[in-house]
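Notes on consecutive records. When two proteins share a document, each keeps its own sequence and its own token line. Never mix them. Below: protein one.
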Amino acid sequence: MMKTFSPKPEDIKRQWYTVDAEGQILGRLAAVLAHRLRGKHKPEFAPHVDNGDFIVVVNCEKIKVTGNKLLQKKYYRHTGYVGGIKETSLQTVLEKKPAFALMAAVKGMLPRNRLGRAMLKKLKVYAGPSHPHEAQKPTPLSL
């Protein structure tokens, strides 16, 4: 009888990858990133262990969306005051904080618990072509 393999923290080997988001579609890129952050591409995947990789995304201000999402997709937040709901369109978000749109998309595809929050910390998103993670020697990831 075979025992079920459960990865231990010392079994986990994390890699660093860079992804160029220029010309990529927002939701499709987010789905691939969430898959990699969870570690589902590895044979030793376990749903209760964070064994995903680190991913550095550059050029996220050049990301694309299909259809009328630039005007129709809304992000909501609440100030805490009565009637204090604020809404922002995707177009405004991409102009002011382009990294937020990708982070929010990936966050929605990760588990809603401590493990999901730990996975999201391994995603580094930058609007321009440069990033401060050269010391980790990230390898380019082709999508």
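Protein two starts on the next line and is unrelated to protein one.
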Amino acid sequence: MTGFFIALISGALMSLQGVFNTEVTKQSSMWVSASWVQFSALVTCLVVWAVSDRSSFGALLKVNPRYVMLGGIFGAFITYTVIQSMSALGPAKATMLIVIAQLTVSWLVELMGLFGVDKGAFSWRKLMGLLIAVAGVVIFEWEN
């Protein structure tokens, strides 16, 4: 049950972050805003690490496979694409499309067993759930 609530908090924070970052971009520039987001995230992580974790950064040298360390690069482009999509589409439509893309890609990663994830079995129920989510976006955006 804890994971359920953490996921809801994560989704809410992502939506708010996108709105905030879009406003910062309007008043500065795309890459200034994205740099601030990544820098403030770094500072926050270092403070929380210093207070609660204190494990060695040397563990990063042992991470295998090495390509899984590209998450920070993804983070920079996530910031960019969220800001651009929210600016172009508005927060609700952008967030719906982002969530559909997340669901689709994460399910495909699971189905194919990519990047060290345990391979999952195909499920018609999950496909129907995905299609219902897409239909929900269409209904949400339906204009009379």
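For the record: The helical segments are 2-27, 30-53, 71-89, 91-112, 124-141.
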